[in-house]
Each structure stands twice: as structure tokens, then as C-alpha cells.
Amino acid sequence: MIKSMTGYGKGESADPQGRCLVEIKTVNNRYGEVSVKMPRSFLAYEHEVRKAVGGLVKRGKADLFVQWEPAAGEVVVPPLNHAVARGYHQAFQELAHELHVSAEIPLSLILAQRNVLQEQTSEDQGDLLPLVLQAVVQALAGLDGMRLREGEALQADLKARRTELATLVAQVRERAPRVVEEYQQKLQQRLEKLLGGTELDPQRLAQEVALLADRCDITEELVRLESHFIQFDETLLLKEPVGRKLDFLMQEINREVNTIGSKANDSAITSLVVQMKAELEKMREQVQNIE
Question: Where does the record place the Endoribonuclease YicC-like C-terminal domain (predicted)?
Fold first, then answer.
């Protein structure tokens, strides 16, 4: 089952204490990476949230955002840490005196400093983990649905391009035997023209043709390509992350096509190889999007 690495999901859950909103988006990445951003009071839940995300997202970069909106009756003024506030005020006064600055120190500057206003802790809020996980699961379900739909489109495109690639390979296979035959005919005609009626040595001509046939033989490459195609088709049907395996197969297919291009001493096969490389590049770009 093919899944795209790109997707988005949103979840929401609520209880008398408030409402939890979760958003998650994923993009392409060679490895699996999860980034979680949530209120400081929810940090105790981060491990369980990461565990839930990691159970679904095997490859790609996932960014998850958690927002908490307290119910109207639950909104409280954050407690003020007077000692920390006084410390900041004193530090600002000393700095102003040292720099010979006479401007007043605004209260907003002190309140903006770290730990002056204390956030409500998860202990004060009660256990909100089930509520958070409910929203996370809902967001992951939306994400997975989108990634599956994207994956179906990728799979259809890859199958179409794989069919086109197989057609080009079949044309190469059909053309390959004629390369040696045409070379033999052209070589014989050139030698007859140069020798001006002198009898050709059939054995010597056969040796030259055999040498070319050996250099231009692409049978092994065609056999390996067929094997890679079979593995490619089988991999598309697996119900697990297949992005890395497909990427490896694309490298192997590309290597065989390059070898065919370098060995085939024929303009028609070279033209077919150029078309195959164009299709392979498009396939490779699509494979980069697969989990």
C-alpha cells in the first residue's frame, strides 16, 4: 500500500476543562523526524504524543502543533513570581545606571521576561493526556487518509510510467540483434569498396563482427532490467513503507539503462535510451515522495 510522505491532518477534543486543537503536517524527508510544539504545561505528554505519531509516520518530517483553549470558567490569571520580577527590575536599573540611561523601565518589559508570569502546570489542570491523545489520533487519521489518497495517485502514475518504460525496453530488445547484422553488412560493403574487387577473407570479417557483437551485447542488462521490473511491481503491492526499496530499485534500473546506452553502438538504441532516462527521472521524482 503506497503512502505519500506529504499530508495534513487536524483533530479536536473537548471536555469541561477546555478544548484541545491538534494540527499535523508531513513533508518529504530521507529519514523519520518528528517535531512537537505544545504548551509548556503539556510537556509531560510529549513522549506519548511522539509515540503515537511515530506509530504512523515511518518516514518523512512531521510537525505537530498542540493548542489548548481553557473553558470560560477555567481561565485564571497566571500567578506572578514577585522575586523574579524584582530581580529583573534590579538588573535593569543597574544596567541603566551603568550605561547612564535615565529612561523609565516599563512594567511590560518586566512581565515579558521568562518565569515572571508562571504558567499553569499539568498537575493544576488535571490529567489531560487522554484528551490530547484523542485529538492527536483524530489528526493522524486525517493525515493518513490524505497520505493514502496521494499514494494512490503516485502508484497510478508509477504504473503508467513503468509500462511506458517496459515498452521502450521491448523496442531495444527487438532492435539489438539487427545492430550486428547491419554492422556486418556495412563493414562488408566498405571493405569491398576499398579492396576494389579483391576477395575478402570471410574468417577475418567474421572475427571483426564477433568482436563488435561481444562489445555491444546487452543481453545481461535486458535480463536484469526485466528482473528489476518484476521486483518493482511486487514492491508496489506491499502493505508496508516501500519508499527506500523503490528508490534502490530505481538506482539499479538507471544503472542498467546507462550501461545499455554506453554499450549499444547504434543511434536508434541511443534514442530509446534517452527516452528511458527521461521516464526514469520522472519516476525517481515520484518515488522521492513515497514513504
Answer: 172-291
One-letter amino acid for residue 211 of the chain: L
Q: Of 3.30.230, 1.10.1300, 3.40.50, 1.10.3470, which CATH number belongs to 7-76+127-146?
A: 3.30.230
Q: Any residues with CB less than 8 A from the CB of 225 and at least 6 apart, and which?
A: 169, 253, 256, 257
- The domain limits of the chain are 7-76+127-146, 82-111, 149-287
CB 110 within 8 A of CB 85: yes
Radius of gyration of the chain, Cα coordinates, nearest whole angstrom: 34
CB atoms under 10 Å from CB of 195, counted, come to 10
Interior angle at CA 59, CA 57 and CA 61, nearest 5: 80
Give pTM, 2 decimals.
0.71
Going through the chain in order, the beta strands assigned E by DSSP cover: 7-15, 18-27, 32-37, 60-70
Grid cell at residue 25: 503536517
pLDDT surpassing 80 at residue 291: yes
In angstroms, the Cα distances linking 256 to 38, 91, 281 are 49, 70, 14
Using one digit for the tens of pLDDT, what is the confidence trace for 26-85?
999 988 899 999 998 899 999 999 999 999 999 999 999 999 988 865 555 667 888 888
Q: Please tell me the total number of residues recorded for the chain in this structure.
A: 291
φ and ψ at residue 198, rounded to 5 degrees:
-65, 140
Q: Are 57 and 34 in contact (CB under 8 A)?
A: yes
57 neighbors 146 (Cβ within 8 angstroms): no
